[in-house]
Amino acid sequence: DRICVGTDSERSTGPDGNPVVHPRRVTQIGIEMNSRRLMVAAAGCVAAMMVLGPAQAQEKDYAMVKGWRVFSGPAAIAGGDMCYASKDNGSVELRLATEGTGEWMIGMPYYEDGEIQGQFGFVASGDYMEHATFSASNGWAYMVLPAPEALKDSDVVSLALDRGTQEFDLSGSAAAMTKVEECVANGGKPPRK
């Protein structure tokens, strides 16, 4: 038995009376289909690189510290580079960032640009949270923390933007923040192993 591919005009009849496709035409059809699939796949890869590539390619891993990823990358709001510590709560990524000026920012993904109103607190969800203004750009919303030492001393931080209240475990944050400060001092270049 042979599988017929193509239109009726491309078929002929075999000795048993069943329709048969000429092997050359099947190969041509297969090449044309594979070429189209390859072109579509290549276009998809290029589009993904254009969307994801610049942001991810600019991030440079520095260290892993107590469950926190420390890395350098483009500044959260202004130009230049910063060092970050990030941790995921299973739904959303939390980022802590500084340029080494003593000022710390906290942020999470947000897909519109501009100033947005939200809430934050160093308590479990549903407890007292303060209103805050976040600056959003390039897929992230950040706010400057009024008391960054609370990141080191608290067990949890909660942020509320567009995805409801997100709670993040701060265990290891003191060590991660120390490593971020080291990252800044080293210009984002990881120490040699």
Features:
193 residues; two-stranded antiparallel ribbon
What is the topological layout?
Elements: E1 11-13, E2 19-21, H1 23-58, E3 60-65, E4 68-74, E5 81-88, E6 93-98, E7 104-109, E8 114-121, E9 130-137, E10 140-144, H2 149-153, E11 156-160, E12 165-169, H3 173-185
Antiparallel strand pairs: 1-2, 3-4, 4-5, 5-6, 6-7, 7-10, 8-9, 8-11, 9-10, 11-12
Question: Mind explaining what this structure looks like?
Answer:
The protein is α+β, with helices and mostly antiparallel strands. It contains three helices and twelve strands, in the order E-E-H-E-E-E-E-E-E-E-E-H-E-E-H. A ten-stranded antiparallel β-sheet has the order 3-4-5-6-7-10-9-8-11-12, with helices on both faces. A hairpin with an 8-residue loop joins strand 8 and strand 9.
The chain-level structural class is alpha+beta
Q: What is the mean pLDDT?
A: 75
> Got a strand count?
12
Number of helices: 3
Rg over CA atoms, rounded to whole Å, is 27 Å
Mass-distribution shape: globular
Low confidence ranges? 1-11, 21-57
**In order across it, which strands form the biggest sheet?**
3-4-5-6-7-10-9-8-11-12
Order of helices and strands: EEHEEEEEEEEHEEH
Question: What's the main sheet like?
Answer: 10 strands, antiparallel
Cα(first) to Cα(last) distance is 63 Å
What portion of residues belong to β-strands?
Answer: 35-45%
* Helical residue percent band: 25-40%
What can be said about this structure in brief?
The chain is of the alpha+beta class and 193 residues long. The protein has three helices and twelve strands, in the order ββαββββββββαββα.
